[in-house]
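Q: I'm a student working through a structural biology exercise. My instructor gave each of us a protein and asked us to get a predicted structure, then write a short paragraph describing it. Mine is Citrate lyase beta subunit. I'm not confident about reading structure output yet, so if you can add a plain explanation after the tokens, that would really help. Here is the sequence I was given:
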Amino acid sequence: MRRPAAAVGRSVTHFPMLTDDERHRLFHRPPRPIPLAGSRDQVAAALGATLYIPSVRPDLTGSVMRAARAGTASVVLDLEDAVPDDQVDAGLAAVGATLDDLSGTDAAPMVFVRVRSAEQIDAVLDGAGVGTDALSGFALPKFGVADGADHLDRIAAALPTPHGPLYAMPIIESPRVVHPDTRAEELAGIAELLDEHRDRVLAVRIGATDLSGTFGIRRDPDLTIYDVHPVASVIAAVVTRLGRHDGTGFTITGPVWEYYNAHERMFRPLLRNTPFEELDAVRFRRHLVSRDLDGMLREIVLDRANGLLGKTVIHPTHVNVVNATSTVSHEEYVDALAVLGRDEDDAPGDGDGVTEGGVLASTYRNKMNERRPHRNWAIRTLLRAEAFGVTRPEVGIIEVLTAVVDR
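A: Happy to help. First, here is the predicted structure for Citrate lyase beta subunit. I'll explain a few features afterward.
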């Protein structure tokens, strides 16, 4: 039986598994509820770890809601590579039934559907019916100039949901972007397409598995994607063309980490012992290493260093690793406020218009903050702070990880 549409104002809040006491212990400013009808940049920042789930998985609704209770704020129901060709119709039916089940459920995460073709967008919308109020948008694989406009036009033509517009998340992974001789032209065309639908484009995703496959590569779990230079060069090109902070760019998310169990190692683990020993968390470090999560943590750090925010994940145990490392340290927070000329009690946006330059010492007395070059970084940091919270001065990332991982 179909339920009435959800009320306007649905939101997502990170770390739902924490008690009030744990939130108070960990956070100077706890994560805030992020309204799905709010700022596109803020919703994009709140994606965090986006969990891909095959649409033909048994009990698809149960999988989505278990993920949400464990901390997932965004999921993609996959009708593309994760579904055998002879099960596409079954996958479509399961997506429609799941959206119907989730209709009116405030605790549901943001739900996107990865389609195989532009025509499947209409099929999903027709099959969802009232359940479209549970749908946040579509992930568009192998997005390119050849058929990207058809995808975006169909999404733009869809009626808005009660909680806001239906969004598009194009996935950059096609051979024309991979190959250097066609890369610049293709990215320029993609940028033009996305600009025409700017209000509908939530984030640009990077398909590292397909990019690697073009070269016949499958990266080793001892390596990050940035060690795979042919793919790293594509990521750099995507960021420099589509991730600009001059009003022409978009939020770009980190590529998938595809390993989740132990393997035989040739190299040392990537996590130092000392920070874990100081917190009596040596066993927890062993746990991270045994699940190949030390490599994933290293890659997340490199994602952010290269301008990426959030990450695609394919296993539930990865979600809270990504989200924990998305929290903002107290040091980052006070530096960002200083760069933007804001006080802690200012409403979001107050002081963001400062244009004067200048250099000022960090409150932490360990660096100089330059207002002009650090401005974009500060804006992104405060968006992240709203979604994932600001940790207390004495709380480090290890304390957050131990509190939320495998809860």
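A: Here are two points you could use in your paragraph. Residues 371-388 form the longest helix (18 residues). The chain has two domains: 33-324, 330-388. It's a good idea to check both against the output above yourself.
Q: Great, thank you!
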